[in-house]
């Protein structure tokens, strides 16, 4: 199978099962959202794919070849994660050149130009950056590395709204010019909803959804209005959650709306991805 | 004047003017959004209010009394910020008791209950927390401290969507039961838009807007559609920004829409706060 394939991957840390028999395929040239709560296992998965951690069971393949201790495969994969692996006292511009040593297609010119656009001085030291600028530094690396599989772990942490918009714009422009596989793990779900095509939801180490955004959003709907009327409509239906405020209630349902049996005065809307995620992953 | 008042406050760091003659009032029992780009001066302002930094010029008053080196005033003010001031090896449950020493109205019982609800073990050490849980720890302190002025600097950094929703819910519940002044500095503007009543926008150390959310949102509107028609409508009007995608264009305008002179086929919508913010603060 082409693309990156996880086959029965499990990983435990002491008494916590971080990944539980995960089987999953990241296909070529698609943009994925990897969504999960804090602690769900997202970072563990990304660290296993990029050889920073080894699984207890199962394996990860790239185009059918195991990625473990496979330099050829690792050269096709880039991960930006919470931990940076750069020497702390290294300057940004040196870090760009250093990255090119390991990833020959890294575009130093583009990295310099993006640094300027994001207002990141390339004379700064890697360890002197604020949370927002550390994220910007890593996002620039990911946008310039030019490998087929790029994993973005929290690419907008600490970024202001303007810089988040700029990141999404550059990601889509790059994808449009020269498609690659981007896997974006983020908590800002509603914002990224228009950027991603495929959605993987992980809960307590297990994949609970793996489908296109449109399929997933088509699975549910919301009904709002007078609490009594909402209750009468939702009785016997597949309710995944409710919110109440005073006498008003919003219910989140799976399935297709049944307009015929819906009481007067209720408002019917589509599901928004973040609300759906919250309802699917709440404990 | 009651509330917290900044009078002509300026602060420079080397060659950067972080705050430039800021005059501003945070009134009693209101919820403010303090919005600005990374580096705009938000944290400097909060650190001056809470006595962690001193201004070069101007002063901060609480109910007419200077707050500088004024323990009585500082006992009325609580700031959660990027830096925690707790001893690193202290456990969460000890930190709750320690906070009560300085803030006698701190509700230790409620803090324990919130920690459980957010899934934060109170046996953990303060310096062992991930970004998300460090934020949760600080948010819990702020929700339990029971002082009249609480400043939240990035209260949702690293929080998953479920925990962000839980934070907004607890904030509004507390405010409803026992009003206080909450000042929320955040980059997640659209999410907080329904929580805040008053908006202060800071740009390069100067206050550029200070008004109610409804007034601010009423200042602008957007027009989208065929680029040529959008261009013909916006000519001579007060345009604060545009986005283009293929032959489509969205324009952000100040003022009231003039339906009479709007070409057929254009879509008119209200301004969303995050889009408005981006347009007002882009360089």
Task: Give the topology.
The structure is a homodimer of 283-residue chains.
Chain A: E1 4-13, E2 16-26, E3 31-36, H1 42-49, E4 57-62, E5 65-66, H2 71-74, E6 77-80, H3 92-102, H4 108-117, H5 131-144, E7 149-153, H6 161-177, E8 181-185, H7 189-192, E9 198-203, E10 206-212, H8 213-218, E11 220-226, H9 227-234, E12 239-245, E13 248-254, E14 267-270, H10 273-281
Instruction: Report Rg of chain A.
Output: 21 Å
CATH C-level label of the largest domain in chain A: Alpha Beta
Uncertain residue ranges of chain A = none
Task: Find the structural class of chain A using helix and strand composition.
Answer: alpha/beta
Continuous helix count of chain A: 10
Summarize the amount of helix of chain A as a percent range: 25-40%
As for the number of domains of chain A, it is 2
Average pLDDT confidence of chain A is 93
| CATH level-3 fold name of the largest domain in chain A | Rossmann fold
Number of strands of chain A: 14
Organism (chains A, B): Murimonas intestini
GO molecular function (chains A, B): ATP binding; ATP hydrolysis activity
Keywords (chains A, B): ATP-binding, Nucleotide-binding
Protein name (chains A, B): ABC-2 type transport system ATP-binding protein
